[in-house]
């Protein structure tokens, strides 16, 4: 058994001092420092007031550190998985782009291979987030227009063991039927859509659970036509939010917090392969993306993902909403696990949950990352073998 001592332990939505966290692959117990069975502890991480948090879960991430999900290789998925440890990410959904069916299925095959392997050297691959190709061309954003197609249930059938989350536009042919038929198998999120409020509402009633990157690539809110944004802000659906201070003006974060509360917001990065790299030109779904500062854009100025790292997004949201960290941390792991139907095993520091931890200093820099009880990253030593 292993132990973490000396940290500020976040559980039950509060920080606790003078607690010892005992774990192996899963969390065994949380006890008072002076009541811990120390004779059973074989390894101990001794902290000096660092924050011990549930590992971050990123539901929308295309790539990182010059690798992309659409590379379609096991090596790329593993490299992303490994590199994300430095950001405290312990679980993620590799996210596909709107490309040819052959390229999408190649990426899904790679994700399946990693899931079915004994790979345990990085963040846990929970499955795939399929962003497109079942979207509206009018709101394609940085997705490839020529590869947008009506809903194809054959992909869903062939990869129902891999796909966890599907972003689609509810107004396109076959979408409503697919949501109603498959919502017990997949999580559907409305995105890249020109849907009216009524169409979006029908999509939710059919079984969709959330919206993809709120405000971006969706019908905006108007006082006569509330659109998808209006639906998202006035119902209890889940909503992804990219807090890089570019996708959404940071003054809007507080509006979202006020409207949604802390139990339905999902902080995501939408990071591309340029994450963790220098400014320059990068590929995203077969399109050239210019990265300069925090901006990732196509040649025509269209936003094309982000280079956001997860702790930075948390800092941005917390700073601009002035919300307490205890509340914001629900949006980094617990909400994600609930959204995916995995809250019994992921997302919180509680007995019988996987021992997935992000440990950060008071400036919110990651110092340790632990996945399934294995210490895989420290700030001082870098990436470690399991």
TrEMBL record:
Pathway: Amino-sugar metabolism; N-acetylneuraminate degradation; D-fructose 6-phosphate from N-acetylneuraminate: step 4/5. Belongs to the metallo-dependent hydrolases superfamily. NagA family. Its EC number is 3.5.1.25. Binds 1 divalent metal cation per subunit. One of its GO terms (molecular function) is N-acetylglucosamine-6-phosphate deacetylase activity. Substrate binds at residues 142, 216-217, 224, 247, 303-305. Its cofactor is a divalent metal cation. Residues 51-375 form the Amidohydrolase-related domain. The active site is at 270 (proton donor/acceptor). CDD domains: NagA. Keywords: Carbohydrate metabolism, Hydrolase, Metal-binding. It catalyses: N-acetyl-D-glucosamine 6-phosphate + H2O = D-glucosamine 6-phosphate + acetate. One of its GO terms (biological process) is N-acetylglucosamine catabolic process. Zn(2+) binds at residues 131, 192, 213. It comes from Tindallia magadiensis. This is N-acetylglucosamine-6-phosphate deacetylase.
């Amino acid at each position: 058994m292993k132990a973490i001592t000396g940290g500020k332990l976040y559980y039950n939505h509060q920080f606790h001092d003078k607690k010892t966290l005992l774990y192996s692959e899963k969390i065994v117990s949380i006890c008072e420092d002076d009541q811990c069975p120390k004779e059973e502890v074989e390894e101990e991480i001794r902290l000096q007031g660092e924050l011990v948090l549930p590992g971050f879960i990123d539901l929308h991430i295309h790539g990182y550190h010059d690798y992309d999900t659409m590379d379609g290789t096991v090596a790329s998925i593993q490299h992303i998985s490994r590199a994300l440890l430095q950001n405290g990410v312990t679980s993620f959904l590799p996210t596909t782009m709107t490309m040819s069916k052959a390229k999408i299925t190649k990426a899904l095959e790679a994700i399946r291979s990693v899931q079915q392997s004994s790979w345990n050297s990085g963040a846990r691959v929970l499955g795939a987030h399929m962003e497109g190709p079942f979207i509206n061309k009018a709101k394609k954003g940085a997705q490839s227009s020529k590869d947008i197609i009506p809903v194809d249930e054959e992909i869903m059938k062939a990869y129902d063991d891999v796909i966890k989350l599907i972003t689609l536009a509810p107004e396109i042919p076959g979408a409503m039927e697919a949501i109603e038929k498959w919502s017990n198998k997949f999580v559907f999120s409305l995105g890249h859509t020109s849907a009216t409020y009524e169409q979006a509402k029908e999509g939710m009633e059919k079984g969709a659970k959330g919206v993809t990157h709120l405000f971006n690539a969706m019908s905006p809110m108007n006082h006569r036509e509330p659109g998808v944004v209006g639906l998202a802000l006035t119902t209890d659906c889940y909503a992804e939010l990219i807090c890089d201070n570019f996708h959404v003006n940071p003054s809007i974060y507080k509006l979202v917090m006020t409207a949604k509360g802390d139990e339905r917001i999902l902080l995501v990065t939408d990071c591309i392969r340029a994450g963790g790299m220098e400014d320059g030109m990068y590929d995203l779904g077969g399109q050239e993306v210019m990265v300069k500062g925090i901006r990732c854009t196509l040649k025509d100025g269209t936003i094309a993902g982000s280079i956001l790292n997860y702790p930075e997004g948390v800092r941005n949201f917390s700073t601009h909403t002035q919300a307490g960290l205890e509340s914001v941390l629900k949006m980094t792991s617990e909400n994600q696990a609930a959204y995916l139907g995995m809250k019994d095993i992921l997302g919180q520091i509680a007995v019988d949950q996987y021992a997935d931890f992000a440990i950060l200093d008071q400036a919110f820099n990651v110092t340790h990352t632990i996945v399934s009880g294995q210490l895989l990253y420290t700030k001082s030593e870098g990436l470690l073998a399991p």
